[in-house]
Amino acid sequence: MTVVPTLRLATTADIPAIRALIDTSVRGLSVGIYTEAEIDESLVSVFGVDSQLLEDSTYFVIECDGEIAAAGGWSKRSTLYGGDQVKQGVDPLLDPAVDAARIRAFYVAPQWARRGFARRLYNACEAAAVVSGFNRFQLGATLPGVPLYEALGFRALERADFPMRFGLTLGIMRMERAIP
């Protein structure tokens, strides 16, 4: 039987499944790039659901066989990366005339990796951002995600190390891409 992946907007009812996807994706796709300690701490300090994306209706999921296989979105707000636990205060809106929209919170279950799901999510984000008047994207890519974003036409701007507890850091690459 052929599995038909379905793309749709995420809802608050998806939060438990998205949390599970984040854990599975980070643990499965970061091995060999981040240490086990960095992976464990990143799931506490950095990665998590960003409820603002759900409220703004800018977060998508792809379902396969009734399960969420991938999730990702875009934002018209200033936060570059991270879940709710990273934010401090109000997340202001960006001005599409001068600011870059954000690509945010892309996760793919390891068993569904390299099947075009992230590209499909990106295409949905790009189409929505264009409708909102944006002409470029910025993102904070995890190191495992850099090859994907390079393949999508993003260019690296700078590497940063996000400070976490216990003296750990998480390598992040700030990247940018014009929206054609």
Average per-residue pLDDT, rounded, comes to 96
CATH secondary-structure class: Alpha Beta
- Identify the overall geometry: globular
Beginning-to-end CA distance, first to last residue:
37 Å
CATH topology: Aminopeptidase
Please identify, by name, the CATH architecture.
3-Layer(aba) Sandwich
Percent of residues in helices comes to: 25-40%
How many domains, in number, for the residues? 1
Q: What's the count of strands? A: 7
Largest sheet, in brief, is: 7 strands, mixed
**Order of strands across the widest beta sheet?**
1-2-3-4-5-7-6
Round the Cα radius of gyration to an integer and report it. 15 Å
The stretches of 5 or more residues where confidence is low (pLDDT under 50) are none
Number of helices: 5
Describe this structure in words.
The protein has five helices and seven strands, in the order E-H-H-H-E-E-E-H-E-H-E-E. The chain is α+β, with helices and mostly antiparallel strands. The chain has a single domain (6-81, 93-178), classed as Gcn5-related N-acetyltransferase (GNAT) (Aminopeptidase), CATH 3.40.630.30.
In short:
This protein is of the alpha+beta class and 180 residues long. The chain has a single domain, classed as Gcn5-related N-acetyltransferase (GNAT) (Aminopeptidase, 3-Layer(aba) Sandwich). The chain contains 5 helices and 7 strands.
